[in-house]
Automatic annotation (TrEMBL):
<feature type="domain" description="IRG-type G">
    <location>
        <begin position="24"/>
        <end position="226"/>
    </location>
</feature>
<dbReference type="InterPro" id="IPR030385">
    <property type="entry name" value="G_IRG_dom"/>
</dbReference>
<dbReference type="InterPro" id="IPR027417">
    <property type="entry name" value="P-loop_NTPase"/>
</dbReference>
<keyword id="KW-0378">Hydrolase</keyword>
<dbReference type="InterPro" id="IPR051515">
    <property type="entry name" value="IRG"/>
</dbReference>
<keyword id="KW-0547">Nucleotide-binding</keyword>
<dbReference type="GO" id="GO:0016787">
    <property type="term" value="F:hydrolase activity"/>
</dbReference>
<keyword id="KW-0342">GTP-binding</keyword>
<dbReference type="InterPro" id="IPR007743">
    <property type="entry name" value="Immunity-related_GTPase-like"/>
</dbReference>
<dbReference type="GO" id="GO:0016020">
    <property type="term" value="C:membrane"/>
</dbReference>
<comment type="similarity">
    <text>Belongs to the TRAFAC class dynamin-like GTPase superfamily. IRG family.</text>
</comment>
<protein>
    <submittedName>
        <fullName>p-loop containing nucleoside triphosphate hydrolase protein</fullName>
    </submittedName>
</protein>
<dbReference type="GO" id="GO:0005525">
    <property type="term" value="F:GTP binding"/>
</dbReference>
<dbReference type="Pfam" id="PF05049">
    <property type="entry name" value="IIGP"/>
</dbReference>
Length: 252
């Protein structure tokens, strides 16, 4: 395990200047491996579709080569999002990834994972724990994953027009439960292997997140953990900000 190197006050000030840190608002980083859907998730968290002119650029390959700052479209919302370059896009060892990107200045960090944890994911979570920065493990593209499991379990039978609405709902709930259990067990196992404490996993879909942000959820919308992800980080960040205000910590 690589040692955690504490940044100096000068390094903290430099990182805040480089990333346009502003007092009085919350700064939230989204990190993860290349291709995990960070930019799409940030757009959804801002209530934007990927084709919106204000959206972060997305693509099959990693689009982010440096940390990019994205204010919320609603100027009344006191927070800003940051798209962090994915692992494998820069020649930076995992042990340096956190410090070199200045991630220690953020109020909270969302770690977006795919099917399994990467070394960089573990390094970020370990550093977050050391700096007392709230971290949120998120798995996106969840509706697509559930659909894939549905096809594996039920095959073409799921397209049977003779199925009632109740039968379709029962199948959906069954597969959703399988996906949630498998995903949470996988995360718990990876955290245990890394020597990290267990923590919650947020399962989300970018299109659902966009609807939740815009209060346009209908009875047909399949909501997973999108509401919690839009509220939990800010609740924790406000609490942390209040505690830091009474301390001399340079990381707040």
């Amino acid at each position: 395990m690589s040692p955690i190197i504490m940044p100096t006050r000068r390094e903290i000030a430099s990182a805040k200047a480089r990333l346009e840190y502003r007092e009085g608002i919350f700064h939230i980083a989204v990190a993860g491996i290349a291709g995990s859907g960070k930019s799409s998730l940030i757009n959804a968290l801002r209530g934007l579709m990927n084709n919106d002119t204000r959206a972060a650029p997305t693509g099959v390959t990693e689009m982010t080569k440096r940390i990019t700052r994205y204010p919320d479209p609603n100027a009344a919302n006191p927070w800003v999002w940051y798209d962090v370059p994915g692992a494998g896009t820069l020649n930076i060892p995992d042990s340096q990834y956190f410090n070199d990107h200045g991630l220690y200045i953020f109020d909270c960090i969302i770690v977006l994972i795919d099917n399994r944890f990467m070394d960089t994911d573990v390094a970020i979570l370990r550093h977050c724990a050391r700096f007392c920065i709230p971290a949120y493990i998120v798995r996106s593209k969840s509706l697509q994953h559930i659909t894939n499991i549905m096809n594996d379990v039920y095959g073409t039978d799921n397209d049977d027009n003779s199925l009632t609405a109740e039968e379709r709902a029962e199948r959906w709930n069954d597969v959703r439960g399988r996906y949630e259990r498998q995903s949470r067990e996988n995360v718990a196992q990876n955290l245990q292997q890394a020597g990290l404490p267990d923590q919650n996993l947020y399962l989300v879909d970018k299109d659902t997140m966009t609807r939740v942000y815009g209060n346009s959820v209908s009875n047909q919308t399949k909501v997973l953990d999108e509401v919690q992800l839009l509220t939990d980080p800010f609740t924790k960040a406000r609490s942390r900000r209040s505690l830091s205000a009474s301390s001399s910590s340079p990381y707040a």
